[in-house]
Amino acid sequence: MNENVDTQMNFGTTSRRLRLETLVRLRWLAVAGQTMTLIIVSLVLQFPMPVLAVAILIGTLAIVNFILQVAFPSTQRLEPIWTFAILALDLLQMTGLLFITGGLSNPFAPLICVPVIITFASQPLRHAMALMVLALICISSLAFTPYRLPWYADYIDRGGPVMLVAIWCSIVSMSTFAAFYAYRVSKEANLLADALTATELVLQKEKHLSQLDGLAAAAAHELGTPLATISVVAKEMEREFGKDPRLSEDLQLLRSQSERCRDILKQLTTLSSEGDEHMRTLPLSSLIEEVIAPHREFGIKLTVLEPSGREGEPVGSRNPGILYGLGNLIENALDYAKDQVTVTVEHDHRHVTITIDDDGEGFTPDILLRIGEPYVTSRKSDARAGGLGLGLFIAKTLLERSGAHLKFENRAGPTPGAPVLGASVVVRWPRKAMETPIK
């Protein structure tokens, strides 16, 4: 089941696109910051600096940004290649400013890593790596600038080459670390968002299936009136033209078929009204039977144990999330069992517990630590049982939404150091979460 979800629900997380308006606003912020710095350094502090060249670079960025804002709508989403081009231009503009204002000795030099971080947080890896390479070239070029840092005239820089190398290493390290961190966080956030979207789609599908009886009743009600009209007209036509040998047989067929349709609709209406309560609520034993019924013909022995019996069992509302989640766990147990899967159902006045055990080889330690995360899809030959990937994430999410707590573990042997007896999944609800109050 989880493999089907993995293959059918591919949301394309690598095709993310930034809105142009986002980049335009960030660039206006950069223009404002650079302009403010130019004014303070040249007019307030009166440090010597190439004012005209700096103003041209800032003006170029402002003009390009204005053209982008006017030429394209604010909702425009950029292809990765165009996002790369815009951020590469920002990187080159920043490099130019730093190059003519002291290079790596400029205290604003670390800002050169900002375009790289944005790219790693929002774009495909190949474009991000290309911008990283360009950034490394730009950072390295700043070490060879012939221009001095705008500072006091009597200042003597005693750092020398060693300090330049240290600053270079610092900026490169910061760019690499920040970019990697942004990429990992962004990737995990997008995977989680896609997995939750898949969860909502699965739950919506299950709800639609549960509502088919209501749709049948609605269809029967809507079709009843026109069908009654057809039946009345058919009877009138049969009374009027029934003796005509050319029409009598057709009229009898028309009336009989209209009556047959009326009987079918009556059955649908009766089924919905009589079975509505049965369809809306389920005793715990019936819920378990409905879950495991589709999985009995897998060639693996499927046993249900009820130590608490059925007397006083909870009766709850039909929950598509619980049906899907338990079904997914049982199917995964069947996939990795050798001969048998045991489902143990227990209940008392406080809790309802369902334990799913198989006789496979259990979870490997690394998988056991990450189980339940979305897109954990590597199934090794020794990683038996338990269900991995997006399907298990959906099942776990749906069951937890219903109030359940899940525990995944391996069943230990009778003696220390004995082989694992199989995997075990324990699903426990507070009884009130599984029970419909009596009205």
UniProtKB/TrEMBL annotation:
Record key words, sorted: ATP-binding, Cell membrane, Kinase, Membrane, Nucleotide-binding, Phosphoprotein, Transferase, Transmembrane, Transmembrane helix
CDD domains (alphabetical): HATPase (cd00075), HisKA (cd00082)
Membrane topology type: Multi-pass membrane protein
Major location category of this protein: membrane
Record's keyword annotation contains Cell membrane: yes
Pfam families: HATPase_c, HisKA
GO CC term, one of those recorded: plasma membrane
Annotated TM spans: 26-45, 51-68, 80-100, 129-149, 161-183
SMART domains named among the record's database cross-references: HATPase_c (SM00387), HisKA (SM00388)
One Gene Ontology MF term: ATP binding
Superkingdom field: Bacteria
Descriptive protein name: histidine kinase
